[in-house]
Amino acid sequence: MDWNTIISTTVKAAIGVETVLYALAAIGLNVHFGYTGLLNFGQAAFMAVAGYGLAVTVTVLGLPFWAGIVVGLLAAALLALLLGIPTLRLRADYLAIVTIAAAEIIRLIFRSVAFKDVFGGSDGRRGFSDGFYALNPFPAGEYGFGWFTFNHRLLWVLLVGWVLVGLSCLLVYMLMKSPWGRVLKAIREDEDAVRSLGKNVFSYKMQSLVLGGVIGSLGGFVYGLAFASVQPDIFGTETTFFAYTILILGGAARVFGPVVGSMIFWVLLVLVYGVLSGAVEAGYITFMTSTQVGQFRFLLVGLGLILLVVFRPQGIFGDKREIAIDAR
Amino acid sequence: MHAETTATDRKAAALAAFKDLDRDPGVAKPDPILVVDGVVRRFGGLTAVDVDHVEVQRGSITALIGPNGAGKTTFFNQLTGFDTADAGQWTFNGRNMHGVPPHKVARAGMVRTFQLTKALSKLTVIENMRLGAQAQKGESFWRALVPGFWRDQEAEITERAEELLVRFKLDKKRDDFAGSLSGGQRKLLEMARALMVQPELVMLDEPMAGVNPALTQSLLGHVKDLREQGMTVLFVEHDMDMVRDISDWVIVMAQGAVISEGPPDTIMSDPRVIDAYLGAHHDAPLSESELEKQLHEAEAALEEEIVEETQK
Which keywords describe this protein according to UniProt (chain B) (predicted)? Predict the structure, then answer.
C-alpha cells in the first residue's frame, strides 16, 4: 500500500475543491435549516441554477464572465422566491416536499433532450471558465509546499473559494448576532409566537430562503469553474444530502459548523477510499473489487450519519444544552 | 403609598364605568377600546363563533368565560388575525381589524398570549424579551450588517427588558434558555415578553393553566398591575376564583355566542349563565368552596345511611 499517496491526498482533501463547494452549500443550508428551521431539501437546485446560469450565459449567449455570475446569482434568488411564495405560508414539511421535487424538476430540465441546444443535455456545458482563469494572478506553475502543492489553476480556484467561504461565514456571523438573526432563530422555535410579537414571519422566511440559496449557489459557481464544466447529474439529491450530513456533522446553527463539517467529511471520505482501494489492490480485502470501494464508502457515509444523529445530534460545535431541551 | 392610591383609583374608575350597565349581551360601554360586530367562524357545518355584538371597556380587566368548546379561543384567534373570520367587523381604537394579519394586529397595540405557552426554548430569557420590542432598526437585513445602526437601540431595549424581568422575578434566569424554565415561569416570561411590545390591549388566553398554586398569586398581581399601568386586559379563564378576584367585568360565551355580561360577583347567579354555562352538569361544582360544600353534603348523607343501616 502506498501510504504516502493516501496521506497526501487525504491532507489535500481538507482544503480541496469539494470541501469548498460543499462548505458553501452547507453554509446556505445552515441559514435555512440551522437558523430558520426551513427544511430545504433542494439545495442542489440553487447550485445548479447558478452553475448553469454562468455556463449558459457565457457559452450560449456569448456574454462575458461577470454577466454569467450576475445571471447565476439572480437565478438563485429567483428560484428562492418561486419556491417560497407558495410554500412559506404552509407548514415546514411542505417546503421539504416542494424543494426536493423542484430540485429534481430543474435537474431533469437541464438534462432533457428538448433543451439540449441550451443546456447541453446530459453532457452539460463546458468552455465557460476562460474568463475566470484570465483573472488568475498566478503565473503557470506549481505552488505550495510538501503535500499542499497545487497547480496555478487549482490554486486560483481554491483561493477564490476559501475567500468566499470566509466572507459567507463573516456574513452569517454578523447577521446571526444581530436582531435580524434573532427573529430567524425565534421563527425556528415558534412562528406563531413571533407573529404575535409583531414580526412579519413570511418576509423573514423569504429573506432567509434567498440568502441561504444565494450562498449555496456560490458552491455551484465553484464547481463549474474548478472542473470547467457543469453536468446535470452533479446536482442530484445526493448533493443536498451530503450537504445535510456535513451540516449536522459540524453542528447546525453554528457559524463554522458547516466548514469544519465539510473538511472532516471529505477527509474521511478520501481516507476511507484510499485505504480500502489500497487494501483491495494489495490483496488484503478479497470480498470487494476496487470499483466497489467507491460505492462502499457512501454506504459508510449513511452509517456515519445514522450514528451521528443517534449519538451526537448536536454535531461537533453544537451546544448540548440546546439539544437536551428537545429531549424532554 | 402613592402607587396604592392610583391603583385603587384605576380599579374604582373601571368599576364606575360598569356601574349602571345592563346585563344584556352586547351592552354598550362608555369608552370601548374594542368593538366587535357579527363575527362568525364556521368549521364545516359547525359554527364555532357567532358573536353578535360585544364591546370591551378601555382600562378594565374583562374576563371571557364559558364552558369547554364555547369558542373563546377561536374568538381570540379571529380578533388577533391568527384565523380568518367568515364574516364580521371589529374595530380596535376605531381602526378596522378584519383581515389584518397577526403581526400588524400586534403592531397596532393588541397583543395576545397563548393557551399552550410559546416560550422560544432555544433562545435565552433575555433574547425572548428583546424580541418583543417593536420598530427595531437591526431587524432589517441591510442595517443588521452594520451594528452601529442598532447598538444604541439594542441597549435601550435590553434595559427595558431587564426592568421587566426584575418585576416578573425572572432576572436570575436572564441568561438561561427559556426551555429550561418551569411552566409557571414560562407563563410569566410570555406575559413579560408581550409587554415588551408596549400594547394597549393585552389578551391572555388562560394565563393560569398549568401554573402551580404558589405562582398563581404572583401572576394575578401582574395581571392587576397591567390595568394600573393603563392597559386594558381581556382574558380567557376557567378558574372562577381567579375571575372573581381580578376581573371588573365578565363576558360569558356558550356555543359560540355571547350569552350574558355582568360584574363578576353576580354573573354566576344569572339564570342564562346557569342554564347555558352549566347546562347538563347543573350540579357540578363551580369552585372549590362549592365542591367542598357538596362533599360535606354527600358525606352527611352517607353517614345518615350508615346510621340507618346500623339501627336495623
Answer: ATP-binding, Nucleotide-binding, Transport
d(CA B234, CA B54): 12
Closest CA to B64 of B188, B222, B216, B240: B240
Cell of B44: 364545516
C-alpha distance from A74 to closest chain B C-alpha (Å): 18
> Quick one: closest CA in A to B80, which residue?
A196
Residue of chain B minimizing CA distance to A320? B122
Distance from CA of B113 to the nearest CA of A (A): 8
- Those residues of chain A whose CB sits closer than 8 Å to some CB in chain B are 171, 174-175, 178-183, 185-186, 188-190, 192-201, 207, 211, 321-322, 325-326
| Closest Cα in chain A, distance from residue B140 (Å) | 6
CATH at B77: 3.40.50.300
Same domain for B236 and B166 = no
Q: Are B177 and A323 in contact (CB under 8 A)?
A: no
Given 1.50.10, 1.10.3470, 3.30.310, 3.40.50, which CATH number is that of A3-327? 1.10.3470
Q: Which of B92, B128, B129, B131 to mutate to test the interface with A (most CBs of A within 10 A)?
A: B131
Q: How many domains does chain B have?
A: 3
Residues B147 and B22 in one domain: no
pLDDT per residue, tens digit, chain A (328 aa), is 788 888 888 888 888 999 999 999 999 999 999 899 899 999 999 999 999 999 999 988 888 989 999 999 999 999 999 999 988 887 778 888 999 999 999 999 999 888 888 888 888 888 888 888 888 888 888 887 777 888 888 899 999 999 999 999 999 999 999 999 999 999 998 889 999 999 999 999 999 999 999 999 999 999 999 998 999 988 988 899 999 989 988 888 889 999 999 999 999 888 888 888 888 888 888 888 878 888 888 888 788 878 877 888 787 777 666 554 443 3
Domain boundary among B156, B180, B204: B180
| Domain housing B310 | 287-312
Last residue of a domain, one of B132, B149, B180: B180
CA B225 vs CA A60, B6, B7, B11, B285: distances in Å: 70, 11, 8, 11, 30
